[in-house]
Amino acid sequence: MLDLRICSHHHFRFAVGNRFWFHHCIYISLLQHTHTLSLSRAEPNRTEPRICYLTHHKEKERAQRSELSVHWVGMWVGHYRENSSMYKRTPSRENSSIDDMEENPDILDNFSDKGTSNPSWKLSLPHVLVATISSFLFGYHLGVVNEPLESISVDLGFRGNTLAEGLVVSTCLGGALIGCLLSGWIADGVGRRRAFQLCALPMIIGAAMSAATNNLVGMLVGRLFVGTGLGLGPPVAALYVTEVSPAFVRGTFGAFIQIATCLGLMGALFIGIPVKEISGWWRVCFWVSTIPAAILAVGMIFCAESPHWLYKQGRIAEAEGEFERLLGVSEAKFAMSELSKVDRGDDTDTVKLSELLHGRHSKVVFIGSTLFALQQLSGINAVFYFSSTVFKSAGVPSDLANVCIGVVNLAGSIISMGLMDKLGRKVLLFWSFFGMAIAMIIQATGASSFVSNLGAQYFSVGGMLMFVFSFALGAGPVPGLLLPEIFPGRIRAKAMAVCMSVHWVINFFVGLLFLRLLEKLGPQLLYSMFATFCIIAVLFVRRNVVETKGKSLHEIEIALLPQD
């Protein structure tokens, strides 16, 4: 039997910063105390060691105090359950900051609700699949001009003009940056569903303009429209999938975004195959993309709106109705109760850009922006741009090279889907960047003068395939899933817009400077630079990224709540 005073004092010294364990300890001690008193009352002749503050009291007084203790414990437990909810904000936030998460990544385990069963994932799956059409379009439009570009330049009269060819590609990236910067304000202003529809509209208009044009200007304007939709789609898709998915499959559903992007890239590749044999086939390639865009716009009419966005707008009844559609009637009440326990009093305030960059949320925004920057600085797009040349040097045709890259990318994405909710986000991200660093070292070795020509070919091709596979396992799908999880609901959409904008800016400069750097530095030094960035990413993930596997958005938000 434990002394209440000693126990509480002992654990207070051990857990002065953790009220949960302190309360839990006192609770256990009180139960033991009550149980002992009950036994004493049932067996009055039995000799038991008495706790210190009952030593000089009579047996009758001890029995009366036992009854009071039972009553007091019941009231205390009720008070404990009410005031120590895992989602209730408390004035003391010392243990809720992201710094504590860095020192102890397992702190989120203290916020798990072990008493609730998992809702059915089948209800939310159709909504997620419709949303990932935007990711399919993202991949499709990134790859649609690769094969047909030569045919386009001939038909539109700018053959041999490398500047014009570069503009056909880069104009889309410029439009994507514009759409991405606006995505947070659009998603918060009109909701996630209408944001998807606004994403589909410029892609339909732009693709139609590109398909029907007879001059370079029309092509560039069309690509600018398409790019605006491309920039708007990925951040909204990441937000929507995160907010409508049950926690226990959120990682799996989040991997659908990367898989859809891979399918889009491969779809553009296969549809572009006849372009060399059939005159004007490039117009068909653009027209085809209007079909999934129209399906996205119409399909969103029948999909659920994000309950989180509805709740922030004060539309409580509608939010509960959407939870019923996504999780089932039995889980909707619980989901609403958890949502209501998070203090949303400041959600209606306008989130300013300065607050994201310099305010109390600046650190988590910095983590998100750095992840996307390191994703691009790892050299993934440079590898995609340079893959045909590397495979051609090994005697592999460019068409087959693109298929190999696409298949490896898709295979890695499918595997990551199965591992995301088993191993966790941080583990996949860590080992993904580590594998990419090893792959870049292999490619740098193949480019050195110490390896024979045949060995260099094996090193280059093998290193490139390993790099793409490692990227697809974690560095590709995880950032887009992890960041909406760790951003508080109030800033989620706008913070995603800022971080994705960093992605597009770095992407643009890597594409712009890669060939020049390759010419000036050579492949060995350039690959070594990319390997260095991958190693930096490994260290950054280990130090700053927290694990969110299996946690609800409210648990994560409370655990990462910054200090005022």
Describe the structure.
- It is a single chain.
- This protein is globular.
- Helix 6 runs antiparallel to helix 13 and helix 10 (216-244) crosses helix 23 (478-486).
- The protein starts with a helix and ends in a 5-residue tail after the last helix.
- The chain is an all-alpha fold.
- It folds into three domains: 4-84; 123-303, MFS general substrate transporter like domains (Growth Hormone, Chain: A, Up-down Bundle); 353-564, Up-down Bundle (Growth Hormone, Chain: A), CATH 1.20.1250.20.
- The longest helix is centred in the C-terminal third of the chain and has 30 residues, at 492-521.
- Helices cover 73% and strands 0% of the residues.
- The chain crosses the membrane at residues 123-143, 163-183, 220-241, 253-275, 281-303, 364-388, 427-446, 458-483, 495-518, 524-541.
- Belongs to the major facilitator superfamily. Sugar transporter (TC 2.A.1.1) family.
- One of its GO terms (cellular component) is membrane.
Percent in helix = over 70%
Please report the first level of CATH classification, the CATH class of the largest domain: Mainly Alpha
Low-pLDDT residue intervals, each spanning 5 or more residues:
1-98, 100-116
Q: Which structural class fits the helix and strand makeup? A: mainly alpha
According to CATH, what is the topology of the largest domain? Growth Hormone, Chain: A
By CATH's scheme, which homologous superfamily of the largest domain applies?
MFS general substrate transporter like domains
Number of strands: 0
Mean pLDDT: 77
Overall CATH architecture of the largest domain: Up-down Bundle
Number of domains: 3
Task: Please report the distance between the alpha carbons of the first and last residues.
Answer: 42 Å
Shape: globular
* Share of residues in strands: under 5%
Whole-angstrom Rg: 29 Å
Number of helices, counting only DSSP H or I runs of 4 residues or more: 26
InterPro entries: GLUT, MFS_dom, MFS_sugar_transport-like, MFS_trans_sf, Sugar/inositol_transpt, Sugar_transporter_CS
Pfam families: Sugar_tr (PF00083)
GO molecular function: hexose transmembrane transporter activity
Keywords: Membrane, Transmembrane, Transmembrane helix, Transport
